[in-house]
Amino acid sequence: MLVDRQIKKVAIIGYNRIPFARQNTNYAEAGNADMMTTTLTGLINRYNLQGKLLGEVAGGAVIKHSWEINLMRECVLSTSLDPKTPACDIQQACDTGIEAAIYIANKIALGQIEVGIAGGVDSTSNVPLVLNESLRKILLSIRKSRTLSDKIKHILKIRPKHFIPLAPMNTEPSTGLSMGEHTEFTAKHYSISREEQDEYAFESHKKMAKAYENGFFDDMISPYLGLERDNNLRIDTNLDKLSKLKPAFDRENGTLTAGNSSPLTDGASCILLASEEWAKKNNYPILAYITFAELAAIEYIENKHNLLLAPIYASTRMLEKAGLKLQDFDFYEIHEAFSAQVLATLKIWKSDKLSKEFGFKKCLGSIDKMKLNVTGSSIPAGHPFAATGGRILATMAKLLNEKGSGKGFISVCAAGGHGVTVILEK
C-alpha cells in the first residue's frame, strides 16, 4: 500500500557487523541472539540510536533452534532501542540478509515507515540437535498409552542407539546433495579448472588482506569475543598451499577444496536504512541508494549444476527493468559461495551460446574484473548464511560513498536454487 502517493528514495545510511568466525572457533558458545544483539548494539552506538523508535527491524537466521521464536524482536528488546520498535523474522537461505533489506526498503519506499534496520545472523557451531525419529515415535506411543502396562511395553523398546542425536544436514532436501556437491557438477559442466578456482580464491584473500591493512573495515566492525577481524582470512596463503589441498566434495575427481570454497561460519551483520527525507532531517550521511532489486529461482533437481545460477535470471531481468547494461557499473559484488560458482556466472554472462541455454537471445557481456569484489568477499571473510547479505550491501555502500558517485551491482546465490541481484547508486 502506497501511503504518500509518491515513491520515496531509500538510502543506506549505516552499517555494522561483528567479525566472522570459522565454525567452532571464537563463537562456538555464542548463539544467534548473542551475535545479533551485539551487532545491533554496535550499530545503535555508532549512529546514536539509543532510545529511538524505528519503523521496523527485519532479519533472521537460516539455522534456528525451535525456541528462537521472534528472534529479531527478542534481540531488539535486548538493545537500547525504544522497546516499541517492532521486528520480524525473514529467512531465505543465503539471500536472507538481502531479502530483509528489500523488505525494509519497500516499506520505506511506500511511506509505511521512515527508518529501519535489516540484518541477519547464523551460527553453524550452535546448531539444533534433534531426537532420533524412532525415539520420537516411541515417546509418542508412551504418551498415548492408557495403561501402565502399555507404557512399560513401549519404554522397553528404547535402545541406546535411540539417544544418538541428529544434527541438521547441510544438503538440499530435493536432491540429498550438499551445495558443494552441486557446485562440483557446475564446475564440470562449465569446465572450470582447479587452477582457475585456486587463483580466484588466492586473489580474493589478497584483496581482503589489503583492505584490512588500508583500514577499509575499521568503521564497519564491532570487535566480539576476542576477534577484531574475520578469522578465516589467510594473509599468508599462496597458490602452492592452495594447490596441495584435497578435494572436499568429490574425493576422486573433484576440484572444489576448503581453500576455494567459503567455510561454515558464525557471524551477524546489519544495515541502517531510511528515506532520503529522514536521513537529511536527522543529519545522517547518505552512503548509497537502493534503486533496483530482483529475485529469481532456477530448476536444479534435474539439472544439478544449476543450483547457484539463479542470479543469471535475476541479473538479466533487473538490468532490463533498470535500462542498464552489465558494463555500466563502477563496482561488482558477487557472493563467493565457491570460486567455481563465481567463475561459472562470469562465463555464462559473456557467452551467447551459454546464455541461450537460459532462454536469452544474447549474453550480458563480460565485466572488468578489476572492479569485482575489490575488498575480497565470502571466501576469505567466511559465510554465515543470513549475515552475508548485510556484509555485501555495507561494503558496496561504502565503496560508492568513498568514490562519491557511481553504480554498484550485487549478486547473491542461495540454497534452494534462489538468487537475488541489487543495484546501489550514489
Describe, in plain words, how this protein is organized in 3D:
The protein is α/β, with parallel strands linked by helices. It contains 14 helices and ten strands. The protein has helices at residues 32-46, 71-77, 96-109, 133-144, 148-155, 179-189, 194-213, 239-243, 276-281, 311-322, 339-349, 352-356, 378-381, 388-403; strands at 10-17, 21-22, 56-59, 87-89, 115-122, 265-275, 288-297, 331-334, 407-414, 418-425. Strands 1, 2, 3, 4, 5, 6, 7, 8, 9 and 10 form a ten-stranded mixed β-sheet that branches. A hairpin with a 3-residue loop joins β9 (407-414) and β10 (418-425). α1 (32-46) packs across α2 (71-77), α3 (96-109) crosses α14 (388-403) and α4 packs antiparallel against α5 (148-155). The two termini are 27 Å apart.
